[in-house]
Amino acid sequence: MGEFLAEAYLWIKALHVISIIAWMAGMLYLPRLYVYHCDAEPGSAQSETFKVMERRLLRAIINPAMIAAWTFGGLLLATPGVIDWSNGWIYVKLTAVVIMSGFHGSLSRWRKDFMNDANTRSAGFYRLMNEVPTVLMVIIVIMVIARPF
Length: 149
Prior knowledge:
Layout: H1 2-7, H2 9-38, H3 45-78, H4 89-115, H5 123-129, H6 132-146
């Protein structure tokens, strides 16, 4: 298995990056949809349109992209010689990825609130939450590229 992973390393890495880009696109867009959805009257045509957009974004893009990112990332971690586990950057990066995954779960729960016309959070809350994936992305990219420690 190690030999296969080593030979396929660049392909796995490319698929990992593609998965991350798709995941982040959705993670940055979905909270913004929630901001706009807050302004729509529950049960209105606009609200129902947002419900469809949010469901499709989550189920067709964000969920599969997260699964792919974790899968290809796991394969990269399993590739012999890729990670020096004595360096601290990998632990910070993995912690940020776990937090990102938890935030993904929060986005899913909030979508269900909108789906049931039961959202109690403000547009300002979702504007603030829209910054969470950005901050996590910055941390992850710095850890992977600069490897500061």
